[in-house]
User: Fold this.
Amino acid sequence: MTRTYDIGLKEALSLTLGGIGAMKPVPMPVHEVCGFVASEDLAAVVDCPSATSSLRDGYAVMSVDIEKASRTNGIPLTVSGVLAAGDHTEKIVRPGEAVKVLTGAAMPKGADAVVSVEFTELQGDRVVCYRDAPPGCNLLFQGSDVAARGLIVSRGQAITPALTGLLAAGGLDQVKVYPSPRVAVVATGDEVVSPGSPLRSGQLYASNMVTLNAWLRHFSMEGGMAVVRDHPHELEETFRRLLDGNDALLTSGGAWKSERDLTTRVLDKMGWEMFFHRVRIGPGKAVALGILDGKPIFCLPGGPPSNEMAFLQIALPGLLQMAGKPTVPFPLKKARLAKEVNGDITWTQFFHAALEKRGGELWVIPHRMKSRLQSQAHAQALIRIPEGVQCLAPGNIIEVQVLS
Assistant:
């Protein structure tokens, strides 16, 4: 693949999604597949329920026997047995007979309805019915929840908690899904230290690494973390170690053009296939993507807003595609812009923003904070000014990415 530099966001996303495939499907126990995406159509292997059963405590009857029953015309039937949920029986209901059934009991042969117990009176070995029960009354029919060979989940569909129950009811105990990738995060730089370590003057804690790891966990992805100095040998050793036990790698820092920006140079030496380097977005321009040993590596810039924005707009969609999930990670909503925002026509510009309901209408308020970390930490939405657009005027209805 030919390397491309300084490309637009649309092209970067196209190269990302075109170059990264879904993970190899794996079988998982049905009780563990919630939140994963089905890699194939999933159909029931048994009927649920497996037999027509009673929805009420009452009496299984032949509906024709009590079609004239009423409060003033009780019709007596001989009770020939009792059935509870789970009981197996070859019992047959004949004309003039009834079988007492508890909720969930399989219907005996011959019966086609259940009269609820509150409309009956037990008199010795006979039950008097004071209400009719048309055919099918108070019955849950075999296969009515799901029939054998009936489709439960389609390929590419996310599995919800309720769907796991329906899959189990349909007889599936193992389900093939796309696993979530394990994604390692590496913070690079001589000035960067791990949280909890002593901090000398001029150093800073690896907050980007923590933020990225939190976003990954938010989207049900796990992996390792490491902080490494700007030294070629240490960088290469760390990259190889983390790639060995993970499916993808995120690097933070060292992705620009100076003599101290070593990340992409080390990866070049390691033989990765670079797709692109530098994308026309602000913040987040110094982002690169390549493949090494069949695994994607996203090199993200070191500045916190740039780091997170490059991750959210480019890396995250690619990682979601690995999990077989939709590649648009955040809902898009229409909101009225409270203040003017100015961009640069040569790139796509993003702004952190707050959301507010005013008179039943959703408003988006661009952040004007001095602290970039505070702005990032309190953002509820992202405003996007497309490449080629200079500014967005206040009062306009715009589309925003909703983060929370």
Summary: The chain has a mean pLDDT of 95.
